[in-house]
Design goal:
The protein is of the alpha+beta class. Helices cover 10% and strands 13% of the residues. It has one helix spanning 82-91; strands spanning 11-15, 19-22, 31-34. Strands 2-1-3 form a 3-stranded antiparallel sheet, with no helix packed on it. The longest helix is centred in the last third of the chain and has 10 residues, at 82-91. The protein is elongated and about 65 Å long.
């Protein structure tokens, strides 16, 4: 976990037509865990999940932190204003704070 918090995994399983409860998720399987995590910010895509009695010495490599992206559609109120909207959007630039 991103803040080194520990949570007890309450259930694991495999996604099929329904959730198929299993005792373990072998390597290469896509599945789910239920762990009672109350704060979404405590997790990230790519978190390494290990056993409490045999913790991983470091997170698995290869995952990069994702950047949030927002997609939006913009339409003029009146179709006659389309050209004005197009010109205004051409002047507008979204700054990417990298």
């Amino acid at each position: 976990m991103s803040n080194n918090a520990a949570y007890k995994v309450e259930e694991t399983g495999i996604f099929r037509l329904k959730m198929d409860k299993r005792e373990e998720l072998p390597a290469g399987y896509v599945g789910y865990i239920i762990a009672g995590i109350k704060t979404v910010g405590d997790t990230r895509i790519g978190d390494t999940i290990t056993l409490d009695e045999r913790p991983a010495p470091k997170p698995l490599e290869g995952f990069k932190e994702v950047k949030p992206v927002v997609f939006s559609s913009i339409y003029p109120i009146a179709s006659d204003d389309y050209q004005s909207l197009l010109e205004a959007l051409e002047k507008y630039k979204l700054n990417d704070a990298r």
